[in-house]
Fold:
Amino acid sequence: NNRLAPSALEPRCAIGQYDAAQGTYTLHTSSQNPHGVRTMLCRAIFGMPETRLRVVAPDVGGGFGLKTNPYPEDALVLWASRRCGRPVRWTATRSDSFLGDNHGRDQVIHGELALDGSGRILGVRAKGLHAVGAYTFSACVAPIEFSLFLIPNVYQVPTLHLVTSAVFTNTSPLGAYRGAGRPEAVYLIERLVEAGARKLGIDAAEIRRRNFIPPEKMPYHTLTGMVYDSGEFERVMTRCQKLADWDGFPARRKASADTGRLRGRGMAFYIEQGGRFNDRMELRFDPSGALTILAGTHSHGQGHATTYAQMVCDWLGVPFESIRFVQGDTGEVAYGRGTFAARSSLLGGNALRVAAEAIVSKARPMAAHLLEASAKDLVFEEGSFSIAGTDRRIPLAEVAAAFYRPAGVPKEFGVGLDASGSWSAEPPNHPNGCHVCEVEIDASTGALAVERYTIVDDVGRVINPMICEGQVHGGLAQGIGQAVLESVVYDPESGQLLTGSFLDYAMPRADDMPEVCVAFEEIPATTNPLGVKGIGEAGSVGSPAAVINALIDALAPLGVESFDMPATPMRVWNAIQSART
Structure:
């Protein structure tokens, strides 16, 4: 797996301000984990209580794992502000980002797959080597961990032998990048499955079908300690094949050959782990009856403001337009763990459900008082409390406003209507899906074009289909970028970074993307009441393997059996020439 630069739309930036009168600091920073940044800065750098530092990161232009931890500049602007007696701002140039940001991937795995004559998997052996950079920190552990734990993927693997090592290198440190070890694991096993299918002369989809973990074995314990709670992998793959017009591929391959081009098809099936740790959400009504969501998760492109408001609107009947969304401010949000590892729908969504249920429970006695009825006779539906069997009702917003009345309300109700909820990712969930990719290659130049791409994802219950599709499209663009274009390159002699700008580091553009068919098979998770599974990493986990499998399928008639990313025109052309000679 080639080394990648996460390259969020917004580079890292920070503004530090010291208040001498209060002895407190405020840090505005582009972080996807503001409470975590506060904790690490206060404990590891400044040695002060967290009440003395407010971290604000309300609107961040992309993160992808890059912005989960603090960087030296976050501490330096605070220190400089205290020394200078004025706010201090720092913004990275794009070259600063290439040089100083955490990178992703950069791993070599040697793997072997044992199959019997019918295509049943007998065992997998793999040995990994990770280049972690000049020093390590907490975020470098996840890619190493998941690149091993998820190697069995969606298959019944009876025997497994895994070894991994990490080496320090004269480069930027390795961190979490969208998928964080999941794409690496899937890349290995899915490359091996397709290679095994070619050796045995069995259709690659059929090899997978014979080895899938069946639904009746759920929950399924893998040899690496993962517990899959749900999944119908054959159902997902069958739908993906249908949408991809699997049976029509030979005709498309012939049509490409008639124009002198090589066409190949690749499949990749993935499973990943969504959600880590725990999180907290809060709901708070103001005196007018309007509602505020205070989110412990952090949206930096995921659309939380829409999705969470949509959920609360469904549960509490509060008008969508009256809901205010607050995130990324440790001065307003009591606590949170931010967003990474496809965790927000699981943790934020279920914590929000707990908070919503608490709001109804807390409001019920007040509603009974206002309706002059017994609380046990009340029914809550469509945003109002009503007395069962009558037409007497009162909207939740009116009940909330009553908590702020200066008089006429029993003192035991207190002032204000608010509630918080928490949820833990124990156990986590396991999104999965199938990718089918078709590529076309110009053998005379090595230029590769991704012509067709089909994805069917099982992300559990889909709350907002448009947002989910957007997440898949974005992840796919990054996966295609890794497979075809992107690579951080250092000079092996001098250690000089050679890809220090977008002139040298090739990012995927709109014209590199095919028309994509995205569909969902909703197989609810059994580990949480909402039945949701993560979506944020889905597109990036399966796509590198699918693209390279398609490339190898296109070049297989020439004798090409293996290929390492990225598939730049020069590298593809060299592979063709080597095979021909």
Remarks:
- The longest strand covers residues 121-133.
